[in-house]
Write a structure and sequence with these properties.
Elements lengths: L12 H8 L2 E2 L8 E2 L9 E6 L2 E6 H10 L7 E4 L12 E4 L1 H10 L8 H6 L17 H13 L4 H8 L3 H8 L9
Antiparallel strand pairs: 1-2, 3-4, 5-6
């Protein structure tokens, strides 16, 4: 079985022309939007070699065509935070950790992304830093302290802090807010 070996440096003039036809080029400081197929977020460009097709992220090809450097295993990140953008001036290559740091600094990480939480937990927003949070760390500590006295039930604590009983259970059993002592 033949493997699909592809290096960006082997793009043909016809493939480059086909790619460029799907990019809405504007001024150098504006986003150049991908007009072709997407994976719901990023532009995707299909190439066929030896009878086998493969999709490539459009912004990665834009980086190669703009800088003449194959990013290889590096991430190609957007300075503009606009996933369909293919303007090389808006793109930079970075390691996975640098990409996560960039996303974190811009508030774009989701706390439910298990891979990111496992690889780089220091970049994930938790507790009060999550905009939807209804409690503060001080309240979580107070919930645990009151429950430990044995005088407060889960139901009473839920009513007192205006949260669901199941959430109180998760807090006192340290299934959530694990980072709070």
């Amino acid at each position: 079985m033949a493997t699909y070996n592809f290096k960006l440096s082997t793009l043909t003039a016809q493939e480059i022309a086909s790619y460029c036809a799907k990019v809405d080029r504007r001024d150098l400081d504006e986003c150049w939007l991908w007009t072709g197929a997407t994976n719901k977020r990023y532009g995707m460009f299909s190439l066929v070699r030896d009878g086998r097709g493969r999709k490539h992220a459009a912004h990665r090809l834009a980086y190669f065509l703009g800088y003449g450097v194959d990013p290889g295993r590096l991430c190609v990140c957007h300075k503009c935070d606009n996933p369909p953008c293919c303007n090389p001036n808006h793109l930079f290559a970075a390691s996975q950790k640098e990409n996560i740091r960039d996303a974190s600094s811009k508030g774009r990480l989701q706390t439910g992304d298990a891979n990111i939480m496992r690889r780089c937990p220091e970049f994930v927003r938790r507790g009060e830093k999550v905009p939807q949070s209804k409690l503060t760390e001080a309240e979580v500590i107070e919930i645990r302290r009151l429950y430990a006295t044995g005088l407060w039930s889960l139901s009473k604590l839920a009513a007192l802090f205006r949260i669901e009983k199941s959430n109180v259970s998760l807090i006192v059993n340290r299934k959530t807010w694990k980072h709070v002592a």
